[in-house]
Amino acid sequence: MADDPHEDVPTLLEWAGGAGAVRRLIDAFYDRVERDDLLSGFFPGGVSAAHREHVTLWWTEVLGGPDGYTAIGGYERMLAHHLRLAITAEQRFRFATTMSRAADDAALPADPEFRAALVGYVEWGTRIAMDNSRPDAEPVPHAPVPRWGWGVAPPYRP
Ligand code: HEM
């Protein structure tokens, strides 16, 4: 369809600036988490380089990049890390809003469309992580790594 506004739209990863930009985002995020009164307790001794690398692979894949996290274990591996963490609503909210601040720290594109898509994913993902972390949770055992897109607001191009 010639006038499809979603045609030839870049991936969120391309718009963000590629995998290097995602790594900056994740580093900025965990640098804040390490200083955070509600979140630092999840990572005793700090957030390791390996954890930062794995989460970067996850996000790079979600935002439209190669399947690097699927290759190291995918959804099942991610799920195993969240089971029984008992994440509270306050901790989830802090996690989500800290990611938005980290996007500023990392100088990711600040246009409303990109940031809406980013926080949309964070809101979705943190709610699933919180639900799956309940002691009595029975999450879906198998699923693909999600792929996120622009949603209702792709880049505005007059
Ligand atoms: C969008 C939401 C989230 C995403 C995309 C995400 C992603 C991930 C991934 C991919 C891993 C596994 C890393 C590996 O393979 O080694 C992981 C582990 C972990 N996540 Fe999340 N997570 C989210 C939400 C949360 C929330 C809300 C919390 C807590 C408030 C949390 C706490 C943790 C912890 C403690 C680990 C385990 C660290 C370790 O033992 O190595 N996550 N997360």
TrEMBL record:
Entry keywords, A to Z: Heme, Iron, Metal-binding, Transport
One Pfam assignment: Bac_globin
Record organism: Angustibacter aerolatus
UniProt-recorded name of the protein: Globin
Record's keyword annotation contains Transport: yes
SUPFAM superfamilies: Globin-like (SSF46458)
Keyword hit for Translocase: no
